[in-house]
Every structure is written in C-alpha cells, then in structure tokens.
Amino acid sequence: MEGAIHGLQGIFEVLFIIGIGFVLAKKNWFDTASSALLTRFIMKISLPLYLFCNIQKDFTRESLLAMAPDLVLPFASIIAAYIVGRIVVKILHIHKDRQGLFIVFFFIANTIFIGLPVNLALFGPQSIPSVMLYYMANTVMFWTLGVYHIVNDTMAGKSGMSMFSLQALKKVFSPPLLGFLVGLAMTLFDLRVPDFVIASFQYVGNVATPMALIVIGIEMSTIPLTQITWDRDVIGALIGRFVVCPACVLILLPFIPVTDMSAKVFTMQASMPAMTNMTIVAKSVGADVEYSTAVSFISIILGMLVIPIYMFIVG
Predict the structure, then answer these.
(1) Neighbouring residues of 200: CB distance < 8 A, sequence distance ≥ 6
(2) Fewer Cβ neighbours under 10 Å: the N or C end of the chain?
(3) Is 270 helix (H, G, I), strand (E, B) or coil?
(4) Which residues fall in a coiled-coil region (predicted)?
(5) Which residues, in sequence order, are CB contacts of 277 under 8 Å at separation 6+?
(6) Domains of the chain with CATH codes
(7) Residue 312 parent element (H or E)
C-alpha cells in the first residue's frame, strides 16, 4: 500500500508541473513561440547534458561490463513490443501521419521521472541497478528507432526514408543521442569528467524533464479537451503502452532468466506511462504534436490506476 501511495505521488508531481505549463499558457505567459524556444533548448542543450551526466555519474566501466548480460531481456522485450506495434499499425489502419508515434507508444516508457521513484518506493535502493538497465535499453531504443519513426511521420504520403539514409542518420544522431553516446564511450574507456564540470552540466541537464512537462502543459492548453476523440489511434496506443509492453517482459522471462529483482523492476518499468520527450521530439521535427500530447497526457492520468495494479501484481 505504501509503495502504491509513493507511486501516485510521482504521478502527482508530473501532473503538477504539466499544470503549471497549462495554466501559465492560458494566462498568456507562454505561446507557441515560447513552446518552440523551450523545445529547442531542451533538444540542443539540456537533454544532451542530462544523458551525458546520467551515464558518467551512475555507471563505471566495471559496472557497465558486469551489467551487459542482463541487458538482453530489456532490449528483447522492447524490440518485441516494437514488432507488435508495427503489426497493429497495419491491422488498425492507423493514420499515416501518426504511425511512428503510435509505434513508439508501444515500446517506449517513462523510465526515470516516473519509473525510478515508483521502483524505489516498491523495492528500495537495491532496485536501482535494474532500473538503470531498463533505462539504458529504453534510452537507446528511443533515440534511435523511436526518433526515426517519429521523423518518418513527417514523410507521410511520400515515399518515406530508409533507416540508413543520410537524411535519417542526421535526424537519429540528434544532440541527445550524441550526449548519451559520448558519455557511454568515455565511461567504457574510464575517462572521467572533473566533478565541477559534471556539477555544472547537471544543473542545466536537470531542467530537461520539468521543462519538457511544461511544454506538454503548453501544448495541452491549445487542445480543447472535449475534442480529444477516443478512436483506435488513441485506444490502441494506450493498450500498447500499458498491456503489450509489460506483457512482452512477462512472456520472455522464462526464456531469458534474470534475477528476481530485475524481473519485477523490468515489468514495472515496461508498464510506466509514455515518455514525455516524445512530445518534444514530435514538436521539434514537425510531427503530429497534438496527438502525441493528448496520448501522453492520457497515459499519465491512466497511470494513477494502472501503476498501483502492476505494483500489486508484481509486489
């Protein structure tokens, strides 16, 4: 029960920050230009520093190498959810300009801002290594395959682009992914950044998540809530997020054995609401930001019901 309360507190924190963006936008503190400026700052500066610092601070060369075998299940389950998403897109005939976002909802979760406090509340500090394993797989998949599909939404009705085309690679190798890869490479080669530099990077990086939530609030202020339609595009994405993704972990567990702690944490991580950075990427590349914002917001609200259920099942 206590774990469920802590999980709901994490959801409240997210909704509170979104609410700030929503209310201030309604009061004309923010407009579409403000949202675009915040998005640019997050994508170009704050997120790259955030991802770089997370790798440098939370991992060592030894811990990365020791964890490598346990990364198989997170990657395998995320890829399985991705494949299911690709199939469901065809079955449900999802609109072409939001197919990429729909697929990303299936296999990418909010593993840090919501996932970390939920797992800490449920399993304690000993869950942190498993949390970070899923976070690493989730991050790599989002900033590569996920970003590619979101960018490809902007090519709807055209021939699209190959995953390995120069155009796709330029979009996929975005500043956030480069920040993550640089941090990963430096950690593997045991190259450490001085503490005062990390602290400076951390100050700027820490604003990425709350600022992204404020952007969601700003975007929500432009969407009449009564016009959010519960069609197959929305319902299918939510089923993918809360049912398909955790089910992929549970189905693969007998075939890819991990510790009991990792099994529980991976299941919880897979059941988290949508990643807030999806809306930031959608806005930065010109994808369907209204759809992304609506489904992200609904997934956070539904998380108040779904997360305690999974806590009860797993715990």
Answers:
(1) none
(2) N
(3) helix
(4) none
(5) 42, 47, 142, 176, 212
(6) 2-314 (1.20.1530.20)
(7) helix 289-314
